[in-house]
Structure formats: structure tokens, C-alpha cells
Amino acid sequence: MDKKLKKELLKILAGVVIFFVLLAAEKTGVCPALFGNRLLSFLVYLIPYFISGYPVVKKAILGIRNRQPMDESLLMTIATVGAFVTGESSEAVAVMVFYQVGEWFQKYAVGQSRKNIASLMDIVPEEANVEREDGTVETVDPDDVEIGDVLVIKAGDRIPVDGEVLSGESLINTAALTGESVPRSVRTGDMVISGCINGEGLLRVKALKVFEDSTVSKILELVENASEKKSKTENFITRFARVYTPIVVYAAIALAVIPSIITGDPATWFYRACTFLVVSCPCALVISIPLAFFGGIGAASANGVLIKGSNYLELLSGVDTIVSDKTGTLTEGNFKVSEIICEEGISRTELLRLAALSEGLSGHPIAKSIREELASQVPDYEINTNLVTDTENVSGQGIICKVSDRKVFIGNDKLMEANGIGFSEVKDPSATISYVAAEENDGVRYLGAILIKDQVKEEAANAISDMKKAGVRKVVMLTGDRKTVGEAVGRDLGVDQVYSELLPQDKVSKVEELLDDLGQRNVREGEAALAFIGDGINDAPVLARADVGIAMGSIGSDAAIEAADVVIMDDDLRRIPTTIGIARKTMMIAKQNIAFALVVKSVVLVLGALGIANMWAAVFGDVGVSVLCILNSMRLLAEKKTI
Fold first, then answer.
1. Which residues carry out catalysis?
2. Single pTM value for the model
3. Which of the given ranges, 38-42, 341-345, 610-614, has the highest pLDDT on average?
4. Which domains does the chain have, with CATH numbers?
């Protein structure tokens, strides 16, 4: 709790204590000379009234002066002044004091829910240590760091900009960005992102981005803009309050004037009008609904997910279909050798050596994975590309070359068949298979096969299962990969539909088809939304086209993060069902608050107009309902990290 909030609490408590002392004295008849005199009683009760309620009266006066009077401050001021006029001084103070109690609860709740988001502001580094060419280290502002600068990151320092580790080894704390408490190990060649804290080691990092383009700057921009994008529910409440407030003011005037003329009892009807004004104050809705959404965004942030606005939180609560890219999203995006099948008399090392030499000059991911596998099995082996001659790339089939004047064939089944090479076909639809054959004294001999796979993320299957448990009806996978590979991965993960061999523009078309199908479903069954999960720059158009775009923040491209509505900071897919759960709980709480506030206020309004409910009932109908709605919204603050 900050100092300002503590100071306000002390003022309110002082007002409450003085009010209850005066009320007890009045009801027990301790000082009849004081409370028997209406003027003296009024003056005494003004003390707690102004101690607690001065800000409300001031705000009402400023609203009138600025020609924007129709808000809850004006309603409270008119109602309490009316109560004083009718001689109900204690009730006037009760309305103001308890209204301020409700306002304080609202500020406290906002402050608590803001912590998870505002804590991100602490990730901004205050300085950067730049190593100059002469070996000296200069401390500069992060904004002054240029691409290519070498940064010295000491133990305990925040990383100022995104970069690549040139030297050193350490553990970095990514909790502020990803919500992940376990430090991540980094060494030479690894990428690091701004805002993380270096552990015990010393790192030299090459800056790859300027500060304004770095991860930390992008996150702060998302946080600052999140409150501007309101949900349909919030916009409805705002419009409702604008129309509702003047209506109840005029209704209260009518309630005070018309029956007074008919009955000739203005005091009674003036009191009832004041009661009507107190109950009709819309603060329970105006405060608790935005607070629920703010709390939902804060809870998601605590779980390592940034949501760019409460409108997207509302859409997430109604997600019916989730569409996902495959490579880099459901899979690791890194090809690795998964299996090596050798013919009799051929060693794994020999097979890998021939394959690596043949692919030695290729930058293809398949070639890279074969070279990496050889390096892991024979660490000291160096690939000598001078041994390779007469290389021929056969489009759609593979490579034919000479390794030390020995003809080598490496490629798919079509290459083997085209060259009349007998081979043992391997059945694995999820793998890319490189068959290897080489010349021997008696002709070309088949040596074996190397299976390369893009590894499925460990958490992907569980994440998809949890999405369906969270209420998602259908999960669809889109990929540019071969149909056999796409369908095999889809079966392993449990997705409902797979569309393969798609170009980026095909993905947009497919999402539009799914949106059309969803639109027809909405007509029949009500609103539902489509979310798309992606990570690459080629996913940016699809992320923008979907109802809700979800991007991977750690490995995702800048374009994908910019186009997305939701960013998962540590790329853990399990955060998606968690966030959907938070969104649905947020909407449930918002609807509960709306229903509870409207029902209670309607009942007390009618009873107040009939003279059955007095000002104390009005206090409950306004402040009591507000506090209960605020406490209900604060349940979102209890949402803890689930991963």
C-alpha cells in the first residue's frame, strides 16, 4: 500500500470513528443539549462529513464548473445535502463516509491488480556498459546503445538491449518477462533479451537491436496501450452510466416535486428523492467491471502472458476454434537426426561422414542437422570440403557428388529409384528421410538411411488437451510441410484438423474459411471467436486476420509480436489454456457484478420510492453493493502462477 493510499485510509478511519462516536452519543442521549438542537447537531456532523467527504464535494463542484456534472460525486453530494436539509444529519454523514470506504476499496483493488503489470516497469535497465575499441568500458544510457556495440553485463545487471553472447557463461533470470522462476543458462552464441537479470557470471554481448526496438521496450508499449482497448462489456457500462446518471437525477427531481404538490408533504418526498439518488449511483458497475478486466490482465501477466487490451480478454473467453502454425509453434523448429539405419558392415560414423561431406556446402536445415549429429558423435572431426567434387543438385531428389573420387548419392526415394539403386524403404511419415548410397568396386551400394525430424514440443500435446478441457471446441494445425509429415504430427498432438503444404497466403485464406464457418455457427449458437497461434514473420498476416492473434514472445519475430493481440513471453503453449481460464473467470465475475448490482439497486429503488427503505438501506444499496462487487472482482488477484 503506497503512502497516498495510507493517508486516505487514515482520513476515512478518522471520519468513521468520529461519526460512530457522535451517532452513539445521539442515540443514547448522552448530550441532549447538543443533539436536541438541529443547528448544533448539523455543525457537529459536518466534522466527519468533511474529513472523509471533502474530495467528493470538491469533485462535484469542479464537475459543475467544467460543465460535466453528471457523475457519482454529484449524486452523493446532492443526496447528502438533501439529507442535511431534512434534518437527517447522521444519515447524510453515513452516506458520505461509507461511499468513501467503497472508493478506497476500489483504489486498493486497482493498486493490487496493477502490481503484476506495473512490476514490468522495473525491467527497464537504467544504464548500459559499452566496451570501446581501446578496451575501456563506458557507461551510457540504454537509448545510446547502437547495433554492433559490445556490452559488458556484470553480475546483477539488467540486459539493456537484445543481443548475442560473444563470451562468458551465466544463468539469467527471466522471471520479470516470462513469469518463469527457473534461471536460464546462456553461453557463447546464445541469444539474450533485454530486461533479464544476469546471474553470477560476466557476459560480453553484441547488441543486435537498439533500445526502442528491444523486447523490454515493446513490452512497456504493450502495457501502456492495454487500457485503451476496452471490451464490449466495459464500453456498454460507460455508455450506460452516461445515459443513466442524468435520467436518475431528473427522476429524483420528479419524485421530490410531483408527489409533494399532490400530497402537500414536501419534506417526506424530498427525503425519498435523496434516498433514491443514493441508491441510483452507478459506481458499483462503473468501478467493478473495469476492475474485473484489469485484474484479469494482471493475472495473465503474472502467468507470463501479455494481453494488449481487455477487448482481447473478452474475445479469449469465447474462443471456439484455435488454429496453430506447426514449425516453431507446436514443434521446436529445429531439425535433428532422430534415427540412423545402417546396412550390415556400415558404421553410423561412416554413414554420417559421407552424408556430412556431401551436404557440406549446403545451408539447408537437413544438411545442418546431419553435420551437427556428426559433430556430437565425433567432436574432433573436421569436415574437409576439398574432398568433395562434381556436386550435382538434383531438384526435388537430392545430391550426387564425388567424395575422394567415390560417387555418393544422398536424397529421397526418388533419387534412389531414378538411379536404379536398390534400397530398403523406411516408413515414417513424420520424418524427412535421406537415403545414402555410394560406389563400391562392384557397383553402387545402398549404405543406409538417416531420419531427420522437427521435434514436437514436450508440452504441446498436453497444452492442446488442456485447451479442449478449457472449452475450445476445435484445434486446427496449418503447415507448409508435406502432407504426410503434417498429418503424423497432428495425430501425435491430437489436433482435430490438419491443412498441409500451405504458402503464407494460403494460411490467410484457410483462416478466412474457418472464420466464415464460425460466423455461420455464431448465427445458430451465439458468439464465438477464432484464435491463431504463430511465431514467424510469415504468420503476421494471419495473426492480424484472426479474432485473437497469439504470438510467441521469446522466439517470435518482431512482426508477429506486433501483429498479435496476445504475447506468450516464454513460448510455453500451456499458458494458453491458463489464459483462457482467466478470461472466462473474468467474464463470469463481470456478469455476476452486473446482475447483482442491477437486481439489488432495483429493489431498493422501488422500496425507497415507496418510503419502505430509508437512507441506511440506500447506503447498503450503493456502498454495500459496490464493496461486494469490488471484493468479487478482487478474486482475480488470487490467480497464481500455474506453470
1. 325
2. 0.65
3. 341-345
4. 3-118+226-295+584-638 (no CATH), 310-330+457-564 (3.40.50.1000), 332-455 (3.40.1110.10)
